[in-house]
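Per reviewer request, we include the raw input and output of the structure prediction for the construct analysed in the revised manuscript.
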Amino acid sequence: LAMMAAALFAAAVLIFIAANWQAFPRLARVGMLFSLILAGYVGGAALKLAGREAAGEGAFVVAAAGFGASIALIAQIYHMSGDEAEAVFVWGAGTALAAALLRSGALTAGAALLAGAWMLMKASDGWSLAGLPLPYLAVAAALYALSFWTRSVLARHLLLLSLYLFAFLFYWRDESSFAAPILLVAAAGAAFVAGRLYPERARRLSGLGEGLPVQALAGFLAGIGTIQAALVEKPDFVYPTVVAFAGIVAALLVAGRGNRALRWFAYAAFAFNLCFLYVVMLGTMMDTAAFFLLAGLTLSALAWLIARLERRIAAAGPDLAGDAA
């Protein structure tokens, strides 16, 4: 709620400035923008030192928004021309620098979002893909390292999701090879296995804690889903679909018992893949009624299995707690 309030406050201030922009002298405009940035950063630091963590992070978000607006509005004042993507990159770099200096998790997450926006802007030219910015991999790695200093788990999750998108866009640029999605599937599988064999070390190195298996499954599904989408009108579509179902079930059986988030993500992914399979097969099946019957029986069995599994896990809860103690 504090972050949402900060975002709304920043929007209100910036819209007010923009709406009355012509009424202010040029020097006053620049002074207002820099005062907003200074007040946000200094005030946020004072609030955090006073123990008001959420309010301080919210003030930092306001200051970062003011910095981004300053880039655009000062360029307008002095009639500077340039690439919008580069302006977003500078905005993200400044936000990341502020995150490092102030040790702000919220600013780190903001820098991750801005880096992803820069990557998409560089990758797209209208509705066509112009070419991916490969330096984004280095940017993502630097921000991931920064997230350990600022203790921002959210930033790590955002960066990993952006890398899944990067792999998809890489395949989209070069549709002749499945190298990117296959590499993503392999990396996700390796992360999942490492999390099972060396749980403490893997979770510490990734910084994701209990979210590691969930992210590993998400990366696996992103890679295999890219292959599914590419083969959707071909007979080979069934093979990656079988692999997707097998991966979901394997993750559920191996690591689902002690991880509720993984279980529900696996349930949702299984249902989504089932619906996806139905949409693809609907146009090729001669007897649609038979498929409806099969889908209904499968969903009924899935619902029964989920209910049974959840009851067994709930019943085993006190035993698990005792073992942990």
